[in-house]
């Protein structure tokens, strides 16, 4: 059974930081792209950041560019999202996703809540 488990969410004041982690089990994702998505009430789920299999290439949505950093550790089958200068509009459930392609993800975590207070 493939499981992606997110952690690191929580409540933080605007301007603060959080680091999300996603650890995968049941399948080796070291050859697959991985990504973070987020979903907030009244909005569609959106791609926040993505990273290719070896971490050389990454993508960021315009809304988080310069504030968030995506990274991965293939030895641990894990991915991370460092979120700095958080804003209230970053409040959402953040989901980890994995492979097989940069524009298509078959595996999803259950999500972790991030709440940024003003």
Secondary structure elements and their pairing?
Blueprint: E1 3-7, E2 10-13, E3 18-25, E4 34-39, E5 46-51, E6 58-60, E7 68-73, E8 78-83, E9 92-101, E10 104-108, E11 112-117
Parallel strand pairs: 2-11
Antiparallel strand pairs: 1-3, 3-8, 4-5, 4-9, 5-6, 7-8, 9-10, 9-11
Question: Would you kindly provide a brief summary of this structure?
Answer:
By secondary structure, this protein is mostly beta strands. The protein is 0% helix and 55% strand.
What features would you describe in this structure?
Strands 2, 4, 5, 6, 9, 10 and 11 form a 7-stranded mixed beta sheet that branches. A 4-stranded antiparallel beta sheet has the order 1-3-8-7, with no helix packed on it. It is mainly beta. Strand 5 (46-51) and strand 6 (58-60) form a beta hairpin. Helices cover 0% and strands 55% of the residues.
* DSSP, total strands: 11
- Give the overall average pLDDT: 97
Instruction: Provide the succession of SSEs.
Output: EEEEEEEEEEE
| Oligomeric state of shown chains | single chain
Round the Cα radius of gyration to an integer and report it.
13 Å
Computed structural class: mainly beta
Count of discrete alpha- or pi-helical segments spanning 4 or more residues? 0
Strand content: over 45%
First-to-last CA distance:
40 Å
Major sheet characteristics: 7 strands, mixed
Principal-axis shape equals globular
Helix content: under 10%
Task: Report the uncertain regions.
Answer: none
Give descriptors for this structure.
118 residues; mainly beta; 4-stranded antiparallel beta sheet; 11 strands
